[in-house]
Amino acid sequence: MLHLIYILAFTILAVIAVANLIRNLIMFSFDRERTYSTKSSMSSNGYSGSRKQFVPHPELLDSSGNLIKEPLLVMRSINVEDARQQLDALFEASPGQKSDVQEEK
Q1: From its phi and psi, is residue 71 left (phi > 0), alpha (psi between -120 and 50) or beta?
Q2: Which residues 6+ apart lie within 8 Å of 37 measured at CB?
Q3: Is the pLDDT assigned to residue 52 strictly greater than 70?
Q4: Which helix (DSSP H) or strand (DSSP E) does residue 49 occupy?
Q5: Phi and psi for 31 in degrees, rounded to 5?
Q6: CB proximity list for 61: less than 8 A, separation 6 or greater
Q7: Which of 48, 61, 69, 82 lies in disulfide reach of 78, CB 3.0 to 4.6 Å?
């Protein structure tokens, strides 16, 4: 008997969840089709306030302010030995490395 109550409760919860999902999808599709027309006054230069100008993120601009059109992340593959040598070089060049060697002696 207790198993039937659990099955009934979870079935009701599943139906409510699916109904909520369908309702949200319908509402989002209506919001997407809706056009937002705002009545804004014309500014002094003649452009309306509702028209947005594309402003790129600062990381997408080079030093002269032009838009970068190349990939931002380029990864090259290196083998394990090269990576180990680079990490060892960084470790030995770190400021704490010299004091650790002197303390061990």
Answers
A1: beta
A2: 50
A3: no
A4: none
A5: -65, -35
A6: 67, 68
A7: 82
Would residue 103 be called left, alpha or beta, if left means φ above 0 and alpha means ψ between -120 and 50 degrees? Answer: alpha
Domain ranges of the chain: 1-33
Ranges 15-19, 54-58, 79-83, 99-103: which has the least confidence: 99-103
Task: Judge whether 97 and 91 are in contact, CB under 8 Å.
Answer: yes
Q: What is the C-alpha separation between 103 and 2, in angstroms, rounded?
A: 70
Contacts of 56 (CB under 8 A, 6+ apart): 67
Give me 36's structure tokens.
């937002």
C-beta separation of 41 from 49 below 8 A: yes
Segment (H or E) for 67: none
State the amino acid at position 95 in one-letter form.
P
Task: Write out the two tokens for 8.
Answer: 């009934």
Tokens read off for 19: 């109904």
